[in-house]
Write a structure and sequence with these properties.
It contains ten helices and ten strands. By secondary structure, it is an alpha+beta fold. The chain has a five-stranded mixed beta sheet, sandwiched between helices. Strands 9-8-10 form a three-stranded mixed beta sheet. A two-stranded antiparallel ribbon has the order 6-7. A hairpin with a 4-residue loop joins β8 and β9. α1 crosses α5 and α7 crosses α9. The chain is globular, with a radius of gyration of 20 Å. The chain starts with 16 loop residues before the first helix and ends in a 5-residue tail after the last helix. The structure holds cytidine-5'-triphosphate and magnesium ion.
Amino acid sequence: RTRRPPAECRHDIDAFTPGLLALYESLKPSEEHMSKQKQLVDSLAKSVSKEWPNAQMHLYGSCANSFGTSHSDVDVCLEMEIGTEGAVEVLLRLADVLRTDGFENVEAITGARVPIVRMSDPGSGFSCDICINNLLAVANTKLLKDYAQIDQRLPQLAFLVKHWAKQRAVNETYRGTLSSYAYVLMCISFLQQREPKILPCLQAMEPTYALTVDGTECAYFDKIDQLQGFGADNKASIAELLWGFFHYWASQHHYKRDVISVRLGKTISKQEKSWTTRVGNDRHLMCIEDPFEIGHDLGRVVDRQTIRILREEMERAAAVLQYDDDPCVTLFEPY
Ligand code: CTP
Ligand code: MG
C-alpha cells in the first residue's frame, strides 16, 4: 500500500463489471427469503394487535428501503399512543407478549439511543428489532427507497459497499465503525456529485411529500417516475463507480473540513454546522449528516482509532480495484 493510487482508474476497469454485477445479483434476497420475512411480519402483527389493537406497524431499514440482503435483519416500528406509560414500559410489556407467543431470544434493549425489543423467529431464524414511534426512521427509509428507484447503479453500488463493509468488519457501530444506513447515505452523496450527476438532490426540489415528526420537517420530491433516466448521460460502469467511491474516501474527502450532505447534494463545511469541536461523545472525525435530523452526525461513533482503520480499509479497497488481478475476490476477502 505504499503506492499512492493515481486519480484516474485503470483503463481496463470495466472488465470487472460483469463479476461485480454477478455478485450483486447473488446478494439480493431470494423469493424464499422475502416470503419468510412476510410470515414473520404477519405473526408479529397478530401478537401485537391482541395487546394493542390500534397500533400501526411499519417496516423500516433494509427490509423496506430496498437495500436489504439475505443476511439483513427485519426492522419494525410500532406507531401507537403511549399515554402515561413510557416507551420503555411498553417495550417491556411487548417482550413479555412475544415470549408468551413463542418468539425466541426476546430481549428488551432499553438503554440504547433508540430503545428496542430484539427477538428471533423460530420459523425463519430471522432476527427482528422492534422500536416504538421512531417515525423519522420510517421517513428516511422511504427516502432511501425512492433514491434507489432513480438509477439502478445506486442499489448496485450500495450492495457492494455494504458487503465489503461487512466482510472487512467496518460495519459495526458498537465498535466505532459505520452503520449500513451511513454507507447507503455515502453512496447516495457520491452519486449526487458525479459529473454528469447520476442522482438528483430530492430535498432541494419542490416537495411532493411532507411529514412532520416531532417538529422535524421531512419533505422532498417523491415523484420518482418523473426522474427515470435522470443519470443516463453519465455512462460510468459499476466497476468505475466502486473504484471512484473508495478513491474518494481514501484520498479525496477532506476529513478535517467537510461534512457530506445528501440533503444538499454536496459537501458543506463542519464550520457551518458547528461540528468543529467535540461535544460529549460526538467527535465529528468523519461527518455524515442525517438527511432529516440534520443535527445528527452518523459518523459520531467514529473515534481516533477507528477513523484510521476506516481510512486504511478505503485505501486498501481503492488499491485492490486499481492493481489487483482478481479484485472481485480480493476486495471482499474476510478481514
Ligand atoms: N437508522 C437511523 N439512524 C441511525 C441508524 C439507523 O435512522 N443512526 C434507521 C434508518 O432508517 C435505517 C434503519 O434504522 O434504515 C436500520 O439501520 P441499519 O441497521 O444501519 O441499516 P439496515 O439498512 O437495516 O442494514 P442491514 O442490512 O445491515 O440490516
Ligand atoms: Mg437492519
